[in-house]
Records
---
Amino acid sequence: MALPQAKQDVLAARIAGLSLPQGGWAGAARADALARLSAMGLPVKRDEYWRYTDPTSLTTPDTPHAAVFDARDEPPAFDGIDRVRLVFVDGVFDPAQSDDPAAAGVEIDRLAAVADRDIHWAQSLYGVLEARGQNPVQRPLAALNTAFATDGVLIRATGKAAKPVALVYIHRDEGSDAILHHCIKLEAGAEVTILENGPAAARFTKVMEVEVADGARFHHIRTQGRDHERRAATHIFARLGAGALFKSFTLTANGVLTRNDAVIELLGDDAVAHVAGAAVGDGNFHHDDTVFITHAGLRCESRQVFKKVLKNGAVGVFQGKILVKPGAQKTDGYQISQSLLLDEDSQFLAKPELEIYADDVKCSHGSTSGAIDETALFYLRSRGVPERMAQSLMVLAFLAESIAEIEDEAIAEDIRSRLEGWLARHER
Amino acid sequence: MLEIKNLHVKLEEEDKVILKGVDLTVKAGEVHAIMGPNGSGKSTLSYVLSGRDGYEVTDGSATLDGEELLEMEPEARAAAGLFLAFQYPVEIPGVGNMTFLRTAVNAQRKARGEEEMSAGDFLKVVRAKAKTLKIDADMLKRPVNVGFSGGEKKRNEILQMAMLEPKMCILDETDSGLDVDAMKLVSDGVNALRDAGRAFLVITHYQRLLDHIKPDVVHIMAAGRIIKTGGPELALEVEKNGYADILAEVN
Ligand SMILES: Nc1ncnc2c1ncn2[C@@H]1O[C@H](COP(=O)(O)OP(=O)(O)OP(=O)(O)O)[C@@H](O)[C@H]1O
Ligand SMILES: [Mg+2]
């Protein structure tokens, strides 16, 4: 089928200024990705998968400017967590601010640093899960990323990591456009925690491919920074082996445009995947969680828990799908997406989907949108809790189910205190 | 302590008048009971006093130790010493009972310029008080009132009252839904708080509660007014004959 001219034009303009790294172990994968991309074109507003989120500013050749945000006295996320920091400033690795990667107790390379090698373990992963994830829904921004990513980390673990690996994304340049691609491979029985925090750039296009082999455990917690004007299109592609665990939680506070895609395939039997998000937005905030979970193995469990708190015209989007393949019996799929609208100007758009081809499965999904419970608010106030504090308590209570998806209590507490800070700053 | 004068209240949203001139004075150290037919305005009175939205005061006043209550935010009324044990305690999913209690205690202390209670002290006090009300550790940990039985919710109200040590306590049908033993527990809890500096307004339909919490004064409310005031014998009369005679007598 011929690609519509509009999509071709958007694509041509977007990649005109980008250079395709040649040669090395990833060269072929990049060339393949470019071929995929050329066949798809870039998303436009009319695309079904972008019905609720306008992709225009994610595909323009020029990066829309984003003021650098000053978080003042708020410490960076995960500050109190013993971790190995790898710092990227506007998408460029900064060795001076980074820790020695060896301390993490896992194999860590940087994509840009090993690009010239002829062979690398990441060859089995780079662009592979992304390519699988193009079906049945096209994800052109992810293919663009595979083709043109300038850097990223390649992490391989064979056992339990000594410390979490923290990817720290600093935004300094108002016009920066960062494209990073990470590959994370957990061999059988390995356990790794990846932390990500920060806005990364004025515009950030990111892909993370995660292979979780049999019995391995992957934890991912990220915060996307507080810059109001930044834009981000991120993808996580994950494939799980038998008995593998995948857990991902994202906190998004502010950001004019965020699109977070998670594409997860439960291939082995008894695998477990949880994706969760807490998003809080005030004003010019558009936040889209798009999730696609495929159950292929037996007795797998998946959970999607997405909560959004919206005010002053903020917009939340959730598109979540559970696909249960033929034979994936005893699937347990749970999906909930909820928004708390703090005023009448804000809106939440949700499209939950179930597609089930096995007969012995348990799948539930629910989506709600509501205002704060005035009766409960009064009850709290009647006990002497000031209105704003009562409201914060209730907002945190609303978000609690998503935060509960974080296993590490210290990290969960960090996330909670960030939310408390945000709520205190955005009281009505 | 509590002085209500000529209180007229209508619903904000519709032209429905509920309280039509309530006069009531409760002195420190006293226990007053309010009885009255369903729908006579007892709960409305307690909500208006504690500051719930949705009502419009068209006339009259209510003061607590001389301070005009009706002008204050609900939290300020609480800090001033007013407490309402709800007829229907509210469930708050996601907010732990303990967190709720500590937040409330400390918010009130802060509002009064007192020092906050340390986590350790708080825990000790709350455990001791919970124990006397037979509220177990699990109930303290659970979200506020979520999944509590009717009687558990009422006991939880009394625990809040015991922790907050208000000076003016309004109990709206705290006895409904309580079994015989729980009624004794709750009454003991209330009686333990009775002192010269504190007053109670107990809304109830039954003499049973008043056997345990002996009132000094009993009021009968009907159609938005206090139509009769008397001693404890008035409650016994209601118990025996219902409201028909009293209503007839007034009309
Ligand atoms: N928000 C409201 N909307 C409509 N009607 C209301 C509202 N609040 C109170 N009312 C009405 O006002 C009247 C008084 O209600 P209230 O709850 O105060 O009665 P009560 O004396 O506490 O009754 P009960 O003994 O049954 O608890 C009732 O007719 C009730 O239906
Ligand atoms: Mg009532």
---
Amino acid sequence: MDDRSGCAEIGELLPDVAAGVAAGDERARVFAHLGGCPACRRELAALSHVADELLTLAPAVTPPAGFAASLMRRLAPPPRRRRWWPGRAARVALTVLLAAVAGSGATMRATADDRREAHHCRERPLAERALAAADGTAGGRAFGYGGSPPWLFLTVALPAAGGVYDVHLVTRDGRSRAIGAVPVSAGGGSWGVALDVPFDQVAEVRLAGSAGPPLAAAFG
Amino acid sequence: MTFAVALSDESLIVGMALGDTDAMAAFVRRFQARVFGLALSVVGDPGLAEEVAQDAFMRAWRHAGDYDPRRARVVTWLLTITRNLAVDAIRLRRDRPVDPQRLLVALREEMDDPGYDGAEWLRAGLRELPTDQARPVVLAVAYGWTAKEIAELEGIPLGTAKTRIRRGLARLRQALGVTDG
Ligand SMILES: [Zn+2]
């Protein structure tokens, strides 16, 4: 009874909060209630969604000629480029990978949780390791990203390699499991996957199969 | 690997966060008409709208790393940035009074663009909403006005302004319920 009358009173105030016009004490009452009430949280999320989507109704209008060009001239180079970042081809491949991950229904969180985490990620670039054969021959690179979701991206560059490499992930607890396959043709290939384990649990990535000699990259 | 894949909005944001100007160029191509259109609907002046739209993209470029896909779609995030800058711009120029009717008419209008992915359920709801409720909702949500400011502009008591915003938004929210089940 108390809960239900509480929800009714709070429910009245939810549109005010979503529209950004609630008074300070009303906001405080609402948020105190939301902590223990998933139903009202869902309702506020729906109302906020409506408010956000209102802006998308504005008509599209082509801007004056030269708009994009003058904008692109204004872009200063970013303050700190990541050193690990590979060449342009791999960069494009990575962007395509991210598109595939986002499109596959996996929750692709483009960036970190908040400013703090985003900052943290910039401070600590992604891990990059050589993929090498048992005799030390370089066979490509492995990139690991410790954000959310964590992901792994592999490039194979090995003259005469062709076929398929099965990819196994070895975690720190010593377990190994298949996570996919890299198609290789004319000595090159690239492939990536979102991981369901935190990246700091990854000990090693192993490639084996018809494409060429076994390759491995150690992390950690 | 083929590069002809249409990149998702999120992957362009990732590229921008990494300082990739190619990703930014694609992002601008994809959204410039939406951003300029919203800026123009709010400020009403093409020159000022172009400044606002340029600033909105610059802010998106600098803050791409702050985008959180759990909180909003990319287009919603970008248009919220645009809205904030547009509102700031007209507040600075007192010679250009806010005209909520202009934006309301624009929001209610059908869009021809086949690539438009906006919320038609919401547009339908906005059209059915009585104008005396729709205007306060637009002023609060799109212009970021307080209930007190809205009451003054509309010439109505504060309590009435709050009631109209509350009822208006609640009715728009019902449109969401019908569509998304
Ligand atoms: Zn409740």
